[in-house]
Each structure stands twice: as C-alpha cells, then as structure tokens.
C-alpha cells in the first residue's frame, strides 16, 4: 500500500482544479473585493510579488487573501475609524508579517512531480496551502515563464485528506480507533465567551488562521454554544465589518443566522456606530446593499460541493444560553468517536476541523485535518 501512495505525484490532485486567480501585491484591498464580488464562490486570491501578467520580470506567489483577511484588516483598531483608507491600502498588508524569519511559509510551492507525502510533510511543517503548476494537455508541465494566471492551482489540506480517505481501509486498524486512543484531540484552541466582543473572536481567527479552524463560542461553564467559522465569514463581504466592530460574539452569530441580519440587530449596529461616531463604518454598512449582503452570499451561492453550507447538528439544550443560534451550530464529535467517523464528518461538511465535546457539550478540544494527516503519515512510515 505504501508503494501505491508513493507512486502518486501531487499533480494527480490537480485534476479538475480551476486555475487560481492572481493579484499583484501592489493591488488595493478594494481591488481584491471587486474580484470576490465578480467571481462568486472564489474562496481565495493568490498574491504575487509583482504583476503576474507582466513578462518583464518574474513573479513569485507570496501568499493568499480571503474575505476573512479583509474583515480582520478593516476591524483593526487603526482602521475602524476610517475604513475607506484601509480599502485603498495595498493588499500586501493583509498578508502575515514576516517577523519570524524562521517560520515556515503559509503558502508553499511544490513541483508537480513532488509526492503526496511531500505535500503532507509541508502541511505538517505549517503550510496552509500548496501551490502547484498545472500540467499541460500533452501531459508535460507548462513552460516556466512569468505567471499568466492559468498555470497554477491550490492544493488544500482537504484535497490531501480526500486522497487518503479513498484508501482508508489500507490504514486499518488505525482509522477505526478512537480519537482519545490516538491522542489526536488538540486541547489548545481559540474560544470566546458568548458575551465577549465579536472583535475578540475575529482577532482569535486571525491569530490562528494557519490552522484553518474556527473560534468556539462557549458559555461561562465552558460548554459549546456555537462557533464563528472561516467558512461562514467567507460567505459574507466587507459590509459585515460594522457588525463585527460593535456586536458581541453571540449577537454576531445571530446577525449572520437566517441568511441575513435581523432588523433588531441591524438597528443596534447602526445605533452603536452613531454613538461611537464611526461614520466610515456607518457608510460601509449602508453601502452595497448591506441589508442583503450576507443573505445573497449565503443563499445564492452555487450548490456545488465547494460552496455547501455547514449543516446543523443536533446541539441540544445547553448552557441555558440567552439565544439559540440555529445557523451557526458547529459540527461535534466525542472522545470515543473513531477517526474515520470524524473524517467523514469533516469532509461531508467541507470543514477542516470537528469539535470534541462531552455529553453535556463541555468543550474538550478540536480535531483538525493536520492532526489527521499526522496520524496517517505516521502509519505510512510504519509500513516501510
């Protein structure tokens, strides 16, 4: 089985993948938003060191940006008072700082002949996404020249997990062992209290972005109430920023719930913006059909698997919370759940993680794709 896995190149995972959309680092934040609006369902844009369409100089992918990056940027303390200036800032400011020169890059470029295990090793070293040249129709790789926007595609953690899942029986008995026995439950995760400011949740998402997980919303007893996820935020647009800047974590979940903000919460956001004299955020709220921006993104997205909404799970009565949030219910498992069962949960809901809770929904930890890949990678190593 190990021989079969080693025989696959990373380019095998590129089949059917759309070409990534490039953006020079000198482009503005507003320019990235324009592309997100035009290209419905586009999860991320690749950022390049120079104009990727220019033949005069080579260009290198230096990172990627998503709507979540834009929201985090607009809600920074120095941008809340004047979001229009922030929107005209270069998109390179959305990328993580290189304060730690020894830190692994979040985006890693691989040769198309690299093995699947090379890809796994890059992910386990901290790579968030892999960028791989697409093969030409004759089977070879495109001639190396400045990027034209049609030569590369993203390979995600989910892509690699799906590859392994197709051969899951070969890893037996490991996939059928419990999360607890595999020691795969991560006890370090991001969480906020239901009544905490939503800004703290977004900051937590920004700080833990490399893990591609969500921020758990818990009650005073540590029971899981909901989550603020990358998946949900990616379905919104920049007009969500005023809500993030003014609401609590619990109210933000309700604001996004039901496909759009409830009138009561929309008025609350407006009143708080006026009270704090955040005129720029108020203009952002009232601009670009703000009352329907969340709704249109959540309800009109294609029904393809890449845009599936997170399905609700049976989160029973818990925490005696003041508000029951239907659309933001997280996907959960238990310490005794098997690895393969949790893989199915995560893959079916297009999530990079599954929360682990006790019977009373007290939050125990989180299981991520990276953790799953480590277990499977160790299993492959044991075959050799």
Short description:
It is built from 17 helices and 12 strands. By secondary structure, the chain is an alpha/beta fold. A 3-stranded mixed beta sheet has the order 1-2-3. Strands 4-5-6 form a 3-stranded mixed beta sheet. It has a 3-stranded mixed beta sheet with strand order 7-8-9.
Task: Give a structural overview.
Mean pLDDT is 79; it is low at 138-150 and 288-327. The strands form four sheets. The protein has a three-stranded mixed beta sheet. α6 (116-124) crosses α17 (369-383), α7 (157-165) crosses α17 (369-383) and α9 crosses α12 (249-256). The chain is flat. The chain is of the alpha/beta class and 384 residues long. The chain has three domains: 19-155, CBS-domain; 157-229 and 305-384, Roll (CBS-domain); 236-300, no CATH class. The chain is built from 17 helices and twelve strands.
Largest sheet: 3 strands, mixed
The strands making up the biggest β-sheet line up spatially as: 1-2-3
Q: Do you know the CATH topology of the largest domain? A: CBS-domain
Indicate the low-confidence ranges by residue numbers: 138-150, 288-327
Question: Distance between the terminal alpha carbons, to the nearest Å?
Answer: 10 Å
Count helical runs: 17
* Total beta strands: 12
The pLDDT mean sits at 79
Global shape: flat
CATH architecture heading of the largest domain: Roll
What would you report as the Rg, rounded to the nearest angstrom? 21 Å
Helix and strand composition category: alpha/beta
Helix content: 25-40%
Q: How many structural domains?
A: 3
């Amino acid at each position: 089985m190990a021989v079969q896995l080693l025989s696959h190149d990373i380019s095998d995972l590129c089949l059917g993948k759309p070409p990534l959309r490039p953006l020079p680092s000198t482009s503005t934040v507003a320019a990235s938003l324009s592309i997100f609006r035009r290209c419905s369902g586009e999860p991320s844009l690749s950022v390049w060191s120079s104009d990727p369409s220019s033949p005069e100089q080579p260009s290198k992918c230096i990172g990627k940006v998503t709507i979540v990056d834009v929201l985090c940027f607009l809600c920074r303390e120095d941008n809340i008072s004047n979001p229009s200036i922030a929107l005209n800032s270069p998109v390179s400011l959305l990328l993580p700082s290189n304060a730690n020169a020894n830190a692994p890059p979040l985006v890693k470029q691989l040769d198309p002949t690299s093995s699947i295990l090379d890809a796994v090793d890059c992910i386990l070293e901290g790579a968030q996404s892999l960028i791989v040249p697409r093969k030409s129709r004759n089977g070879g790789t495109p001639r190396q020249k400045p990027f034209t926007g049609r030569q590369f595609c993203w390979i995600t953690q989910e892509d690699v997990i799906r590859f392994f899942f197709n051969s899951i029986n070969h890893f037996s008995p490991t996939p059928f062992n419990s999360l607890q026995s595999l020691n795969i439950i991560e006890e370090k995760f991001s969480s906020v209290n239901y009544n905490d400011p939503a800004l703290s949740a977004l900051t937590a998402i920004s700080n833990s972005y490399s893990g591609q997980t969500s921020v758990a919303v818990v009650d005073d007893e540590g029971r899981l109430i909901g989550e603020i996820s990358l998946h949900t935020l990616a379905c919104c647009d920049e007009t969500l920023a005023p809500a993030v800047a003014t609401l609590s974590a619990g109210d933000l979940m309700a604001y996004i719930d039901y496909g759009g903000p409830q009138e009561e919460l929309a008025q609350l956001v407006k009143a708080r913006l006026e009270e704090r004299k955040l005129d720029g955020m108020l203009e952002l709220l009232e601009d670009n059909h703000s009352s329907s921006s969340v709704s249109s993104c959540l309800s009109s997205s294609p029904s393809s698997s890449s845009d599936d909404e997170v399905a609700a799970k049976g989160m029973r009565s818990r925490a005696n919370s003041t508000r029951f949030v239907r659309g933001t219910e997280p996907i959960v498992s238990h310490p005794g759940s098997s690895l393969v069962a949790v893989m199915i949960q995560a893959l079916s809901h297009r999530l990079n993680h599954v929360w682990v809770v006790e019977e009373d929904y007290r939050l125990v930890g989180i299981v991520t794709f990276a953790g799953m890949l480590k277990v499977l990678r160790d299993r492959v190593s044991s075959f050799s």
